[in-house]
Amino acid sequence: DVKVTQSSRYLVKRTGEKVFLECVQDMDHENMFWYRQDPGLGLRLIYFSYDVKMKEKGDIPEGYSVSREKKERFSLILESASTNQTSMYLCASRALVYEQYFGPGTRLTVT
Amino acid sequence: RKEVEQDPGPFNVPEGATVAFNCTYSNSASQSFFWYRQDCRKEPKLLMSVYSSGNEDGRFTAQLNRASQYISLLIRDSKLSDSATYLCVVNARRTGGGADGLTFGKGTHLIIQP
After folding, report:
1. What is the pLDDT of residue B29?
2. Which residue among A2, A81, B19, B95 is least crowded, i.e. fewest CB within 10 A of its CB?
């Protein structure tokens, strides 16, 4: 059974804090993705990675960075959290074919 | 024109009825199409891929119209458990190489009423 896990389901951070969101997949997938989902805006791609140490910007990379040191792990970093980064963050992975598997999401609140 | 566009709904449908909704896409070079389902406060999950010839999976039928650039989802004999948000998903090659990216519509909210 495919599995994508995220380090936290709920997270509350203060403005200016550095935030790490971790994602792990056990399917040996090459591609991993970070999205945020907001009401009325849908899913928006922040960053993706198609191989270890490789990364590409998605549609809204500003204020975020990522790290992929191992194939199974893809981390999203908020260098200095701001209130407009309060959102649901979803990690996903997929192999070369297109079925994309999502993690359960992290609901981040920045106060 | 937005890349992937869906009617947000909500569609309120009585149990047992048939419901259909469409999704339009702007990139004529798109090759792959999907419907995902997302339950409230849960992650999206693949419902079905959409093939050129159309495809059926139980009560669900998906169709692709390349000429008009839309895909559709038909649900027959709707159940209460079909209540969810249905996301239309289209592939879109991104600049800079690497993986193709999937573009998600904002979703159509479906409510099946008893």
Report:
1. 84
2. B95
